[in-house]
Structures are given as C-alpha cells and as structure tokens.
C-alpha cells in the first residue's frame, strides 16, 4: 500500500479554493488505498526566508522514506534548488495556480518565480494540475512534458437550485480580496449602472492582502456605492449557502483562475454568470452558462453586467444552461481517484 505525505504551507483550514481542494483530497484518498499524513510547512511560502527554508528541510527529512511526497504548489514552486536536491524518493507536485502568474508581483519577482517553478517541476516525478488551462501553461511556459501531467479538476458538491431575490437584483462574488480577483475593477464596472436596482455582495477573506482591500474600499467610496456594495468578509458555510440561494447573478472579475471553484459552485446552483475569461475560467463556465468578457476590460464588464441585469430572459437562459452544466461537473471522489492513481503509479 502506497502512503502519501502531503506537504502544505500555511493554515490548512483557510477558506480558499486551494486549501479546500487539499482538505477534500486528504479526506478521500484513504478510500482509494492511499493513507495520507500532512506535513505542515511555514505559512510564508511562496516567499520564505532562510529560516523557513531550513524548517521546511527538517520537516521533509522526517517523513517516512517510503512515502510518496505530494507538495502543494504554493510551496513547491518556491523551493530553492538546494532544497529540491535534498528531496528523497518519489515527488509529485500539485499546481493550483502558477506562482509566476500572480497579479501584482514586480516583474523581477515573476522572473524569479518562473525559474524556480521550472526547476521544481523538473524535479517532480509527476505533476497534478486542476485544469486544462494550467496544463497548457506548464507545457508551453515551464517546459513540463505533457505526459508528465495529470488533470484532476476540483469536485463540486451537489446543491439546490438558487431561488434568487429579484428586487433589488442581488449580485454575488466569492473569494478572498486579492489583486488577482479584480474586485476594484468590478466596482468600477458597476459604477455606471447606478440607475439599475442592484446590490453586490463580495464574500471573501479581508485579511489576505490589505492593499487590495483598500483599493476596493476606495473605489466604493469614490463612486458613492457604500449602500450598494457589501464586503462580507470570510463567512461560515451556512451563510455562504444563503448568499448563493439569494443571488440573482454571479460575477467573477478575476484576472486569472487556475480553475475557478466558485464558478463551478455557482453552476451547481443554477446561477447565471458574468465572468472575466482569465486563465481556466472560460473552460470552467462555458459560453452557454456565462457571459464572457476580456479579463481586465472594465468597459466590456460594464456592458455584460448591464445586459444581464436588464434582460431577464437572458438571465433565465444562462441560469438553465448553468444548471444543466452543473449536473455534469466532476465529483470529489473522481478528483481523489485520479490523484490516488498517480500516487499508486497507475494511469488515472
């Protein structure tokens, strides 16, 4: 029986898509014959100092020498060469989102991370990614052979269809407030639509990137939208379920998504969607279920939002398509099965 040691940086309980993915995989792998131990790594990744690199080395050296090492890409892509060279046994990298494509990084840091990720993925015996788009990026930009990559898309739990609110129209966006999520652009896109009766709720952690939170709040104040836009912060699952159920329209202004788990969750609830087609987002929610706009294009986003908010027939058509697509989304058991197959050395 193969055992896996899953190295994960930071707080595994954090409410992000990547950590949610890791938690579900850890929960389900034993059912496929793969016991899992968790190796906690410092939360400073992907920007560790030397002390944290040494702590990481000590943690990895203590693992069972016969176990397969699975490393979350938030840390793995930032492993220095000396640490990569010290890794023993079979190593699998799990890439949710290429580090060098994170929004807001200085160019020099992006270059460093790209080199670091390329070296790490070259050391890996196999690489797991969460979308077809990420596989394309790894093969085209990080020189990873296609046959070394397995796609294990996130699962989506079944959900009841959203009932909506209707007056005012409730717009929902979900995810931590980070530069990449483009919430400031979303506020800018909604500002010209004050004559329409809408409310926006952004449900996501506010403690991950203070500058991004400040930018969103500044945009809200600049356009006088304090009574229209709510930054709900991190919410418990029951509250998030209520937000989904009450929503009339789901929107993602994200500049890049490695998959877009919240888009899948919106489809599972039959919500019409407006999305910025950055990264894998366009693959996750197809054009039948969502209005697609160019990532970062505020004018296009305004136009799409106006169409969705003013045309109920359009919303209904998108909602029906989303609901049907939601019925075909991968389950978490399928996600875990594919990862287990890689760990066991089988074809997924």
What's the arrangement of secondary structure elements?
Elements: E1 4-9, H1 17-28, E2 36-41, H2 50-61, E3 68-72, H3 73-76, H4 81-86, E4 91-95, H5 107-123, E5 126-129, H6 132-141, E6 149-151, E7 169-174, H7 183-190, E8 198-203, H8 210-222, E9 229-233, H9 237-246, E10 249-252, H10 261-268, E11 273-276, H11 281-284, E12 290-293, H12 298-310, H13 312-326, H14 332-343
Parallel strand pairs: 1-2, 1-3, 3-4, 4-5, 5-6, 7-8, 7-10, 8-9, 10-11, 11-12
Overall description:
By secondary structure, the protein is of the alpha/beta class. It has two domains: 4-155 and 330-343, 3-Layer(aba) Sandwich (Rossmann fold); 169-326, Glycogen Phosphorylase B (Rossmann fold, 3-Layer(aba) Sandwich), CATH 3.40.50. Helix content is 41%, strand content 17%. It contains 14 helices and twelve strands. The strands form two sheets. Strands 2-1-3-4-5-6 form a six-stranded parallel β-sheet, with helices on both faces. Strand 10, helix 10 and strand 11 form a beta-alpha-beta unit. Helix 1 packs across helix 14 (332-343), helix 7 (183-190) crosses helix 12 and helix 10 (261-268) crosses helix 13. It is globular. The model has no long low-confidence stretch (mean pLDDT 95).
Radius of gyration: 20 Å
Count of discrete alpha- or pi-helical segments spanning 4 or more residues: 14
Strand adjacency order, main sheet: 2-1-3-4-5-6
**Order of H and E elements:** EHEHEHHEHEHEEHEHEHEHEHEHHH
Tally of distinct domains: 2
Second CATH tier, the architecture of the largest domain: 3-Layer(aba) Sandwich
């Amino acid at each position: 029986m193969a055992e896996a040691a899953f190295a994960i940086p930071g707080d595994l309980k954090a409410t992000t898509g990547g950590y949610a993915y890791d938690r579900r995989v850890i929960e389900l792998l034993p059912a496929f014959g793969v016991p899992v131990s968790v190796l906690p790594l410092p939360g400073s990744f992907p920007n560790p100092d030397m002390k944290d690199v040494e702590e990481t080395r000590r943690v990895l050296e203590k693992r069972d020498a016969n176990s397969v090492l699975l490393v979350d890409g938030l840390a793995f892509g930032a492993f220095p060469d000396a640490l990569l060279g010290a890794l023993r046994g079979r190593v699998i990298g799990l890439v949710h989102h290429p580090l060098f494509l994170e929004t807001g990084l200085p160019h020099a840091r992006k270059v460093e991370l790209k080199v670091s990720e390329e070296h790490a993925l070259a050391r890996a015996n196999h690489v797991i990614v969460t979308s077809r788009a990420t596989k394309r990026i790894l093969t085209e930009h990080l020189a990873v052979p296609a046959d070394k990559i397995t796609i294990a898309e996130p699962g989506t739990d079944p959900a009841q269809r959203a009932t909506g609110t209707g007056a005012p129209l409730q717009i929902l966006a979900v995810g931590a407030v980070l530069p990449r999520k483009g919430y400031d652009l979303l506020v800018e896109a909604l500002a010209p639509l004050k004559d329409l009766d809408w409310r926006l709720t952004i449900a996501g952690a506010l403690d991950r990137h203070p500058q991004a939170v400040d930018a969103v709040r500044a945009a809200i104040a600049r356009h006088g939208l304090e009574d229209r836009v709510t930054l709900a912060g991190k919410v418990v699952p029951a509250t998030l379920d209520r937000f989904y159920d009450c929503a009339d329209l789901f929107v993602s202004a994200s500049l890049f998504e490695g998959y877009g788990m919240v888009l899948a969750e919106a489809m599972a609830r039959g919500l019409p969607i407006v999305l910025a087609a950055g990264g894998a987002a366009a693959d996750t929610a197809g054009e039948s279920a969502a209005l697609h706009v160019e990532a970062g294009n505020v004018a296009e986003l305004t136009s799409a939002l106006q169409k969705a908010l003013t045309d109920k027939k359009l919303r209904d058509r998108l909602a029906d398509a989303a609901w049907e697509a939601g019925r075909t989304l991968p389950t978490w058991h399928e996600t875990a099965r594919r990862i287990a197959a890689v760990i066991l050395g089988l074809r997924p």
